[in-house]
User: What shape does this take?
Amino acid sequence: MKHTLAVLVENRAGVLSRVSGLFSRRGYNIDSLAVGVTEDPAISRMTIVVRGDDHVLEQVTKQLNKLIDVIRVTDIKADEAIERELSLIKVAADANTRSEIIQIVDIFRARIVDVASKSMTIEVTGDDEKIRAMEQLLRPFGIKEMVRTGKIAMTRGAKSV
Amino acid sequence: MSRPTEKMTGARALIECLYKEEVDTIFGYPGGVLLPIYDELYDADIRHILVRHEQAAAHAADGYARATGKTGVCIATSGPGATNLVTGIANAYMDSVPMVALTGQVPSFLLGNDAFQEADITGITLPITKHNYLVQDAKELPRIIKEAFHIASTGRQGPVLIDLPKDITTDELDFSYPESVELRGYKPTVKGNIQQVKRAAAEIARSTNPVIYAGGGIINSNASGELLKLAETIMAPVTTTLTGMGAFPADHPLFLGMPGMHGTKYANYAIQESDLLIAVGVRFDDRVTGKVASFAPNARVIHIDIDPAEISKNVRVDTPIVGDAKWVLESLVKYSKKCKSEAWLDKIKQWKKEYPLHYIKSDDIIKPQYIVEQICEACGDAIIVTEVGQHQMWAAQYFKFKEPRTFITSGGLGTMGYGFPAAIGAKLGRPDKVVFDIAGDGSFQMSSQELATVVENDIPVIVAIFNNGYLGMVRQWQELFFEHRYSFTTIKGSVDFVKLAEAYGALGLRAEKPSEVRPVIEEAIASGRPTVIDFIVDPEENVSPMVPAGAAINEIMDLEGT
Ligand SMILES: Cc1ncc(C[n+]2csc(CCOP(=O)(O)OP(=O)(O)O)c2C)c(N)n1
Ligand SMILES: [Mg+2]
Assistant: This one.
């Protein structure tokens, strides 16, 4: 089972390695990890997607909380959250295929951010499912390169983590 | 006394900070990047003990901390000095020992350049420290040191490392020591949840076969008085883990001895037949639980621990209470009454009678267990430090510990070579106590260079070598599980330990017959000198009883010839 954790940490050198080291050391599986500064420049926020049952989730949360630089850990429930991920996909494209690709991009409300004679680069934002679907449809054209930011998430409503 | 904004170098500020933390002793070894700090130590009001290997500095700080309850401090130079501390830091981490390790580092502008004697010690020690720091600005030094001592000594205690680039120690700063720490990510829970305490009391009231399973957390929290109170209030027997020895008086009728692999049969039987396990300051180590799935099969479990991450880590817990053992036990006593444990205590009494710890005594050859008994008789309130191996288990089994902080041993990491330097730390922390290092002939050779340290500083610890000519604990497993194939475990005749002691200027004694055991112990104590006693013991004596690896703990058995 997948869980999304919002982890507020001190914005300091070495914090990322403390967190990632904890996961590898204790054998927890990370699906993705995204990190950036928050509205408070002294605090960074990590969004970590971790796989495991409730026991694993409990251990991960407790072990994260033990790190001195970790301020707060919140398990973000999918049904109460906005979840987004951004992906850039560079796909092979020529005069024959370009319009078909543009159609797919439109359907997904994605964006073309770069066009060259033999390729197009597409920016798509959404949840994991949407990005995968997009990837599936573009695959026959030939994906030359793909990069994903990893998921970020925020709870709905006025409440914050 | 320094005025609030006195200008001084980082090195000077470090010393001022150590004064503020009331550090009276540090263990260390100098090097290039430490020159500014060592220049300050030259006439500082702090006792610096020069060890002969940095690993010993860390172990000595650890032994000092365990004997006194204060935070131990060690210091080593960059690169190899720092990496030599690593085993000692890992050891302190596994047993939750408060320690601050200071390391020199190459100057900031060379960091990351593979400079001479550069090692990424904060990276290396990430998984074995409670927290660590690379100081990036001299101005931060007072805050970091204040935080380090706070983190090391509160919550679940542990080692904190501070890496000090050389330029930080020569840069100037306006010194003032912070009054308090502000760490928004670190707020240990001391007071347990009172609803949980009441729930635990209700569990206790329903129990007829309770067992208290107590560990090193009792000692860290100075809670042995409260433990005794709880046991006597509810009338539950108490088993203490290896690191918990001394937390409960061994001569008390409710005492069960140690549980687990080389525990007593009755402690293991009691756990297995208990209906309620009250676990305090323990972590359900695999050496205690044996096969986890069969551990305490009928028991509901109360787990009291300062570290929430220990709750339900290895064993499912019914009533967790996160908090400091002393606080929680004190309030639990308030809400608890005597259990209906009479029949249970009778049964345990019967087990104790039927299955005592035992060994075959001899008039010709020295049995290792006999030495422990004799040390205990000669000096029952000594501090016993150990190395790792068979001798360690015999010390835990046969010494009757009366008080906390009198048994100092490497539990979690099982570090051979720990005992002698830890004994040095313990003796410096508790000069009023006789300190023995119960040692193996193998282990002692991992730190014997520290004989120079004890002689130079006149630290009268007594090393009692149980000389069996083997890496005995490994040999025992080879005997039992590898058809007596003693692959590289024979070390007989390594060195003449008496001459070795004498070469360093220590007193060297030897006992080869049982009748000589007591006299050499008395002689060592009376000498007041650093002493090594070479006890020539039965070479193939085994530690018994034993739970085979992977078995349930009630499958504990006597080994042949014991
Ligand atoms: C640093 C280290 N290396 C290896 C081991 C594995 N080990 C555990 S006990 C033991 C034998 C110890 O021999 P000795 O000190 O003579 O004690 P004895 O068991 O003979 O009493 C060994 C090699 C260890 N615990 N620590
Ligand atoms: Mg030996």
